[in-house]
Description:
By secondary structure, the protein is mostly helical.
Amino acid sequence: MHLGNVIVYVLLAVLTIYNIRINMRLFKLRSSNIPRDPRNLSGQELETIKALSSEKRKWVILSQILFWTSFVFVFLNSMAVLGLFLDLYTVACIVSNQIDLNATQILINKN
């Protein structure tokens, strides 16, 4: 196994752990707080939520494309490229989860 392959898979492990930590924070935030009614949000908060939703949609589509591309590389027996695309998929999932976390914090914040 080449050094590049090892780096790609170590990076995948680190990114996956980070993604799991973000998911746990998001789960705890959602389960311990009740979101505000959308009618109680200010205009700026609604615009921010809409922008975050639109941005998240783009990242989810990208993550799905990267996942299915990596799935194709499983059948081509190209493990290094598979690892690279799984890294990219994980990064897209992390960004998507961060956007979710930001939106949830806006919905829960009671300024």
